[in-house]
Amino acid sequence: MRDWDVALHWTIRSLAVACLVLFVTAVLALNFPAFIGALEAGIIGYILLRLDVERHPVDQGTSDMRVDDDVEPPREADAQAMYPLQAAGIPLSIETRNRPARRRG
User: Fold this and answer.
1) What's the confidence (pLDDT) of residue 103?
2) Domain span at residue 30?
3) What angle do CA 100, 80, 98 make, to 5 degrees?
4) Which 3 state secondary structure label does DSSP give 76?
5) Does residue 82 belong to any structural domain of this protein?
6) How many domains does the chain have?
7) According to DSSP H, which parts of the chain are helical?
8) pTM of the model
9) Which residue, 10, 15, 84, is CA-closest to 43?
10) Position 10 in a domain
């Protein structure tokens, strides 16, 4: 088992180096087959990396550090904010001030 893991790690590393070398070669020499080889090496390396991560999951020793499981109480700023517009799923708010307040502060 340990030999297989070591071989997998070195295979992933060598595929990453091959991907880098082929990509730089493709960019500098404008070589399309080298670009396709870089894509293939990168895809195979990524698949093997995902396989390794699934075989050895990271132990999640820490959990949520909140004292209670309740959601944070709404703050005054949350109550005043208006979200009429969204960009990429992020609600945006615009705070308007009148001109005299802007000049004072």
Assistant:
1) 59
2) 2-55
3) 10
4) helix
5) no
6) 1
7) 2-29, 32-55, 76-80, 99-104
8) 0.55
9) 15
10) yes
